[in-house]
Amino acid sequence: MSRFVRASKYRHIFGQPGKKEYAVDNVKLTNSAWDTNMLAASGRYLSINWLSSGGGAFAVLPLPSPFKPLPNNLPWKLPDIIPLARGHSAPVLDTAWSPFDDSLVASGGEDGNILIWKIESNAFEGWGHEKFEPVDFDPVARISASPKRIGQLLFHPAANHVLASATGDHTIKLWDLERSDDPRITLGGHGDTIQSMDWNWAGTLLVTTSRDRKIRLFDPRASTDAVRVADGHAGIKSVRAVWMGQSDRIATTGFSRQSDRELAIWDAGSLDNVRKLVVDQSAGVLMPFWSDNQVLFVAGKGDGNIRYYEYENDNFVALAEYKSTDPQRGLCFLPRRALAVSECEIARAYKVSGSIVEPIAFVVPRKSDSFQADIFPPALSAEPALSAAEFFNGKKAAPNVQNLETGAIAPSSNSFGPGAAAPAPTPSYTAPTPTPAPKIVEPTPAPAPAPVRQESIPSAPTKNGGALQENSRLTRLNSGATFSKPPTE
């Protein structure tokens, strides 16, 4: 054994669950077998796919913290009947929160509809009181997106009110929630069910995985077809993809032909496989979550543990593992701008197991009480860099980032995001001029990848078209109007 230990400021990271009374009990998770994360988090709220009769629904809860009791004096054990976001005629399959409005959430269901909801903070007053009468939330807008199910939803990281949906007819549709009656862009070419999708840092490129075992890279404003297609993991089970921050690398999780669970790294410019690692031989689908600390969190459905790896030199180095005897059915992570930096919390997961949602803080231990700038790089802010109209007109802008110590917001340094050397650049939407266009300075490329090899990770140290129908006026979405709970008599 080597006497030398690899230097890393994240080497001692550990998972810290909250106290029992800081969790949420009596959660009635949907019994749908659709492969999504089951829950999603904004900086203020948590949405959970809910088990309900008479159509689909999801619950919205104030955000639990691993460091303090639930807000709004909510009981840690929920009442049997709580307000739900109802409106789908079939089970809700996925929810997604706007990165620029912590109270705006979209839901997609088996009925082929996308519903947009605005959550008001006073909706949680009176929960658990003896005379409490729950009043369900109402949607502000409805999109009839597909004759088949809506499997995944994803907001754009830089442009406000731009939403991507993956439909059961094997297409991805991009919507302008402000004014569009139809999808602005429809991406095709998938041979089977779409399993995951993720934007790059600046939202200029979109990566998808599909049941046809292909990984596809789209430049949506240049072509409705994929600009790159590559063979992915050889196994037949679900594959997930996540973009690795500002780099030109994509991480995927999947299965080998022998049913080994795998973790892989791909070059976004060519979709060449840079590295493929064997994780283990369990059966649960692996869910990857990227943190801008250069740390990848990986959790398996049905597992009780959460692994975390540090990305370095086109490799994933195992840091440690959060272990639990309670298997997770779903998992999501909190936006980094909402972390408790005073607790040296670099990431926070929300894990649903049985009837309990548990917050888990991932902490880097430090002796000093001062702000630890080296472990808190700027986080994506809640201020959009583009409007939906600007995005669909071809404008590019880096997402705004927030200093986690001062709260100051500024554009991120990478003007066009990773993958600037992508095979099919987005066409210019400015009028042509006789002079040549200025040359764009590319970010320093990653080192040339070593030949692809497979290895084991070392163990850790211990309805068509779609009309946007408003329930009142869609302008309510832009004006910040919210839903008030009718007064209880």
Automatic annotation (TrEMBL):
It comes from the Eukaryota. GO terms for molecular function: actin filament binding. Residues 3-67 form the DUF1899 domain. Residues 409-489 are annotated as: Disordered. Keywords: Actin-binding, Coiled coil, Repeat, WD repeat. The keyword Manganese does not apply. Belongs to the WD repeat coronin family. This is Coronin.
